Amino acid sequence: MAVLIFFSSAFLLSLSVFLFRNKLVTRLISLLYALIHIGLTIHSWMNLNSTELIYFTFSSSGVLLLAILSLLTIPTFYHGFVYTAKDDIRKYNIYHASLILLMTFMSGAYLANGMTVLWIFVEATTLAVAALIYHDRTEMALEATWKYVFICSTGIALAYLGILFLGFIYGRGDAANLTFENLSVIIDKANPLYLKIAFLFVLVGFSTKMGLFPMHTVTIDAHSVSPPPVSALISTTLMNVGFLSIFRVYSLFASSPIRSFMNNVLILAGILSLLIAAGYMLKAKHLKRMLAYSSLENMGLVAIATGIGGEGYYAAFLIIVLHSLIKSSLFYQMGQLSRVLHTFKLDDCGRYMALYPAGSLVLITGVICILGIPPSGLFISEIMIFRAMVTGSNWAVLIITFFLLCFVIYAMTTRTMHIVFSDPRSIPDQPQVTSVRAVETVSQFILLGLVVILCFYQPPFLTDIIKSNILTLGSF
What we know:
Elements: H1 2-19, H2 23-46, E1 51-52, E2 56-57, H3 60-83, H4 89-111, H5 115-133, H6 139-170, H7 180-186, H8 192-210, H9 217-225, H10 228-234, H11 237-253, H12 259-282, H13 287-308, H14 311-341, H15 352-355, H16 357-370, H17 377-391, H18 395-421, H19 442-456, H20 460-470
Helix pairs in contact: 1-2, 1-4, 2-3, 2-4, 3-4, 3-10, 3-11, 3-14, 4-5, 5-6, 5-11, 6-8, 6-9, 8-11, 9-10, 9-13, 10-14, 12-13, 12-18, 13-14, 13-17, 13-18, 14-16, 14-17, 14-19, 16-18, 16-19, 17-19
């Protein structure tokens, strides 16, 4: 009954935000929701592989990603309180009510045990996040919101076509209840052509959420105008929803004859994502867009790792975990940077170390971590990917990936050093600095500290739950 209590509480708390038009009450409700979410995560971790309300199962992959979201709930709410502090009560409450709904819908997608339920929750996240993207009510925010709704809806429609082909495979009147468990029993007898079509539709459709080629553009535009705490969720936990949707279908089809076909498609999508990310990062002029393309690069690595197989499966999940911690920290920091420098334009940024040393340390540490430079935990995952490429004799993929990563490293390091140490290019004088408390960086240092720890030590509970996700794929 924990799932029922969670969803009931979430909708009641979201509604309460509108009823009590007081910022203090809104903050208390938001923190109460965060505690309830953490409670759900603890319950799900203690009841792995059990099912509640028929449609929700505490699978290893879902629980792992749910735990990441729980870890980010309190810092996301905290930085949201800071960002929206000067908003009127209406905007303030819309923001926090939508944030509660977004986290709830993502949680439902993580725990869904069937394609139709998963599809419903993924579509629901589109509506919730659209209200958050439009929070600042600017012309650019309106344009990005409509683009997000249109492209994501198109992608979800394509994913639904993939679900219809799964229905053809199932071949029964109750095909709307397409649980992964039921499908796994009959997948070996299915027509490979139907499986290929279904996988392609699912990959293209859910890539709108994962931020993967070919539907990556929607998340790039959303990052540019969203409040930084919202960008943190779009770039991490919402992308994780897309990854999980694709990975569940991949795992389902892995025992069928189309496994090599899926691997090739994922590797191609991953390489193209890396190529686009590297190209655009080299000419990036907007800091949040640069971080958005960094997310595209990391999702490309996840796709390549999954397609390579072997140790790549473990590396893919490790990247998902670490990327969530690092990128959320960097986007939280963007909220503070904008208050100090009053801009996200790279040419207008500069001398950040002199103006806000604590924030500069977060930015430098975060960039080192996201690029996989030791002592970042991402270094371990990238080593595992390259080792899997060598083991599988994927020399062309290895060379291309390494070559493109060099461009990414160059682009991010040069721009970060400019922001931290150089003078602004476009304006002669630095604008008046808004006071920012160094305590606001505490959550970011904690998250980045976890990333460094995971480079040297990965606790058994983490390795065990990742291995249980990939056990049937034959990687360990």
